[in-house]
Amino acid sequence: MSMIGCWNVWGLNSLRKQKAVQEWARKDNLDILGIIEPRLGSNKFSEISARMGLQGWLSADNGVDPNKCCILVTWNPAKLMVQILDHAPQWMVCETTLLATNKKLLITFIHGFNTPAERIQLWDHLVGRCSVNTLVPWLAIGDFNAILSGEDRVGGSQSWPQHMEDFPVCIQQAGLSSLPYTGMRFTWSNGQTGANGIQKKLDWALANSALLQAWPAAHANFLPRLVSDHSPMTIKMAQESKARNKPFRFLNLWTDREDFLDKVNGVWNQPVHGNPLYQFTTKIKLMRSTLRRYHNQTSSHISSRVADAKRKWIKGQTELDARPRDPQLQAQERILSENYNRLCKEEEGFFKQRSRIQWLELGDRNTSFFHKSLLHRHSRNKIHSLSTPDGTVLHDQDLIHQHAINYYQALLGSGSSNRSGEEEVDISGSKPRPRGPSFKSRALPSKPNIGLGQVVPQLR
C-alpha cells in the first residue's frame, strides 16, 4: 500500500505552513506528495526538508525560475523510485515504481491556472496523455481550478457558461473518473461569510480504469483546511481486502444454454420432506449450491475463457489455411468459431448485467465499456470508513465488517426461533420429520420463465 498526498499550500516559506505539512505527512504516513504553489523551488526545499521531518527525501519542481515554481514533488526514495517524464507550468508527470511490489503508477500533479483560456492547454495535455496511458495505472491529482457540475459549488454566480464544460468533457475524453472520497466535499473557500461566501470543489483525485483494476480499493480523503484556502488530500492506494464469501448472483447467460434446464430439473425433482415452506427453502439452497458449481465449471473467469477460445480459433484457422480441403479441419474450425462467438456474447452479457447498464449502442461488442462501468461502480460502492456512535472512525475493513454485524445484531436480535411451530427437520434421514406435501411432482415448465429468475437472484 502506498500513500500519496497533494496540497495547494499557497506558499511554503512560513514556519507555520512547514509544520502543517510535516504533521500531515507524518500522520498520514505519506510516501510522495505534491505541493502546489510552494513559492520556492526544489533547491530551497532541500534546505528546509530536514526540519520538516523529511530527511533524505528527494524532490523536483516544474519551474525554471524557483520563484515561479507552481508544483513541487517530494518523495521517500526508500519507498518509491520516481522519474519525471514531463512538466509544464500546469502539470508534472511522474512515473513511480513501488519498491516493495515493483508496481508502476503514473501520477500527474495538477495546478490549473485561473482563466479558462489558460486551462485549455491543461485539458489538451490530459486528453493527449490518455492515448499513451491506456494500460498504465494513471492518477491525476491536484488543484484543477474547475468544477464538474453546479453541485460542486455553493455561493457566488450560479451561471454555467460554455467554458465550464471544458473540464467534464476533458476527463470523459481522457478516460478518467473521480476516485471515491471521504472528508470535505468542498475543498476551497474564499474565507468570507454570508452572501459573499463561496465554497467550491476545485481539488480532484482522478483515475483511469487501469488504476481501478490494479488498486480496486483506492480512495481519497480530503482533510479540513488549515493554513491554506485549499484542503489537503491523501490518496490511499489500497488493494482489495481479503476475500470474503461472495453473495450468490444469478447470471442471465445461463438461461441461453441447452443444459441449464436439465441442471435445474435435476435439483428441483429431488425428494425433500417437510412442510411446504421447508421444502421450498431447502430446494432453493440446493439450487444455489448447484448453480455455484455450474458457474465455476462453465462461466467463471469469462474473459480468460474468451481469450483461450480466440487463441484456439486462430490456430484452427491457420491449420485450415494450410489444408483447406480437409473436411475434419473444416468442421473443427466451424466449431471453434461458434464457441468463440458464443463466449463473446456471454462475456458481454456478463459485464452488462453486473454493470447494471441496460441499453447502449457502441458497436458489436460493448465489453470494454461494461467492464469499465463495473470497475467504477465497484469502486464507488466500497465502504472505506465508518463512524461509530461514539465518534470513532473505523478504516480497517475487518473492524468495519464486525461493527456492521454487531450493529444489526443489536438492532434485530441474534436469537432464532422456529416460527412455523413444527419440529426442526433435516434431509439426512436421521430425525423424524412431519410429513407434508412434496414438491417432487411440481415439474418446472419446459422453457425458462420469470418465476425462477425472480426468486433465485434475490437470495444473495
Automatic annotation (TrEMBL):
Q: Which Gene3D superfamilies does the annotation name?
A: Endonuclease/exonuclease/phosphatase
Identify a single GO molecular function assigned to this protein: catalytic activity
What InterPro entries would the database entry show? Answer: Endo/exonu/phosph_ase_sf, Endo/exonuclease/phosphatase
Q: Which residues form the Endonuclease/exonuclease/phosphatase domain?
A: 7-230
Q: Where is this region: Disordered?
A: 416-460
**SUPFAM superfamilies referenced in this protein's UniProt entry, alphabetically:** DNase I-like
Its recorded name reads Endonuclease/exonuclease/phosphatase domain-containing protein
Identify the species of origin. Answer: Salix brachista
